[in-house]
Every structure is written in structure tokens, then in C-alpha cells.
Write a structure and sequence with these properties.
Number of strands: 12
CATH topology of the largest domain: Aminopeptidase
Structural class: alpha+beta
Number of helices: 9
Strand order of the largest sheet: 1-2-3-4-5-12-6-11-10-9-8-7
CATH architecture of the largest domain: 3-Layer(aba) Sandwich
């Protein structure tokens, strides 16, 4: 095939998004990907574009496949549906595992859509084991107004909230995420994105302290509102505050003409049952698979 292999650049972000959206459209009839997600990811501090990314470009300039390795531990590999079955997934997986070894990593994880039979089959054949599950959840955008604990109010995110919201989110996510995200990395993948929607990103205030927050992103041309992050300070949990924050975001999304509110949750958080109690249901899922990496000269 007359295909070109090279590192990705920031200019490739839109083409990578189109590649991923084409696959999701095939599997699910729509894409749940925020258009500026790839650009935000490519700017992450642990990514060296020249070393940690690879694109396979078709003669017409569109991408047949792409991959990246983040910190030597996490990979993403996507092949355009038009090129599935031509060995590009295997090629990119070989590259990703090799790059992870160059990082000095002894394992590599990758997330694969459960509807991606080719990708799932490739990982299983290579000995990848299931590590975790991600679920895309949804709830209606109708219902009663939020019910708040005494002394707590909700309002939209304001620019001066950024540092405190970062602290609340990281403190909450520390319970399950592998590493803490410093402010610049967190902001670059959330509130500094063009898709950030402050009106649908409520903060919960008790006295003069922010004790909970939702970060919402805009999904243009989609019937869904999308929540990227939900966090409640530990001493305010169990009082219905998460429900109130999500209800605020859902009702606001409905006023914008959206039909549902969606968010992803990870099995490592243990939050699925909580979200289901809050009226959310599973729309679809992805699986995180992981394998141990042997040195190249070590026999299996």
C-alpha cells in the first residue's frame, strides 16, 4: 500500500478525530468524541510528538491509522474502518510496544471499544488481559430542580474558580487515578479547551468554599450534553451533592436543546453503582487491556 509513516503533529488533530469518529459512527451510529480532545491530548506534558506518536497517512492526506504512547504505560491505537484487515493494527501495536520498552516500561495498557471486534481480537491474541472497564452513562435532561444540602448553593463556573476546582478534582480523583495531574496539565485538558462549557459546569459552594464541581464539555452537532469530570469534597459526600450537580448540568443541557446527559466512569472508581442510583444507565462500554512487556531479546 502507498502509505506514509511519520510522527503526528498538532495539525493532524482534526484528521485523527475524523478517523476515530468514522469508527465510532460505524459501531454506534454516532460519535461521542469531543472534537478538540485529540489536540488537548497531543499537548500533554508527557508526550514527545516525534517519539511518542505515529500516523499512517493515505495518498489523499487522510489517515489510515494512528497510535500514541503516553508515559510508556498507556497506548491508543485506531485504524480507519476502510483499512481494517490490512495489518495496520498489528504494525501500530508493534510500534507502541517497542516505544514503551524504550521508555523502560515493563507493561503497556490500551483501551479498546467493546464493539471493535478486530481490535479486541488482536489484543487477546497478543496475550493482553482485561484490567478495567469504562462505561458511557446517560440520563434524561428532564426532571425536578436540584435538591441541595442545607447551606450549599450552586452557580456556574467562573474564571476565578480554576485553582480551587483543580484542587477539589485532584483530591477526589487521588483515590483511584495513578498519578496526580498538576494544574497546567489539568487545565489544558479541561477548562482551557475551546469545548469547555462554563454555563453547564456548576460549582457547589458552602459558605465561601467550593466543595464540589462538574466540568462539562460541548459536543457540537450531538444530541448529548457531556460531563467530563464530577468531584465532591470528601466531607460533603453522602448528602446528595453529586446528584444535585448532575441535575443542574442535565437541566441546563436540556435548555440548550440536548436530549441526554452523558459521562464516562471507570471501574477503578467504584462509582458505577452510585451513578445508577442517580438515574444514569449504561449506553456502551470499553475495556482496558494490559500486557507484560518482555525485553526484545528475551524468549517467551
Amino acid at each position: 500500500m502507498d502509505l506514509t509513516r511519520r510522527p503526528a503533529t498538532l495539525d493532524d488533530a482534526d484528521a485523527i478525530h475524523r478517523l476515530i469518529a468514522a469508527a465510532e459512527q460505524l459501531w454506534h451510529g454516532q460519535t461521542d468524541r469531543v472534537p478538540d480532545a485529540i489536540a488537548a491530548d497531543l499537548r500533554r506534558p508527557l508526550i514527545d510528538l516525534d517519539l511518542d506518536t505515529r500516523v499512517i497517512e493515505a495518498p489523499d492526506g487522510e489517515l489510515a491509522g494512528w497510535a500514541w504512547v503516553h508515559g510508556g504505560r498507556r497506548a491508543q491505537i485506531d485504524v480507519h474502518p476502510s483499512y481494517v484487515g490490512r495489518g495496520l493494527g498489528t504494525e501500530l501495536l508493534d510500534w507502541a510496544e517497542g516505544r514503551a520498552r524504550e521508555h523502560g516500561s515493563d507493561w503497556l495498557a490500551q483501551t479498546v471499544d467493546d464493539a471493535d471486534k478486530a481490535g479486541t481480537g488482536l489484543l487477546r491474541a497478543r496475550g493482553y488481559e482485561v484490567l478495567a472497564t469504562n462505561w458511557l452513562l446517560e440520563r434524561p435532561v428532564t426532571g425536578d430542580a436540584p435538591v441541595l444540602p442545607e447551606g450549599v448553593t450552586l452557580r456556574p463556573f467562573a474564571p476565578g474558580d480554576a485553582r480551587v476546582v483543580h484542587q477539589v478534582v485532584q483530591d477526589a480523583f487521588d483515590e483511584w487515578q495513578p498519578r496526580r495531574h498538576e494544574y497546567d496539565e489539568w487545565a489544558g485538558t479541561s477548562i482551557e479547551r475551546s469545548s469547555f462549557d462554563p454555563e453547564l459546569s456548576p460549582v457547589a459552594v458552602a459558605g465561601d468554599e467550593i466543595v464540589g464541581a462538574v466540568i462539562s464539555l460541548e459536543l457540537p452537532d450531538s444530541p448529548d450534553g457531556y460531563v467530563d469530570q464530577v468531584a465532591v469534597r470528601r466531607d460533603f459526600r453522602g448528602q446528595g451533592l453529586a446528584r444535585a450537580l448532575l441535575t443542574y448540568a442535565a437541566l441546563g443541557a436540556g435548555q440548550q436543546g440536548k436530549q441526554t446527559l452523558t459521562l464516562w466512569t471507570h471501574s477503578g472508581t467504584g462509582a458505577l453503582a452510585m451513578y445508577q442510583r442517580l438515574g444514569m444507565s449504561v449506553r456502551r462500554s470499553t475495556t482496558v487491556c494490559r500486557t507484560a512487556l518482555r525485553a526484545v531479546d528475551t524468549p517467551p
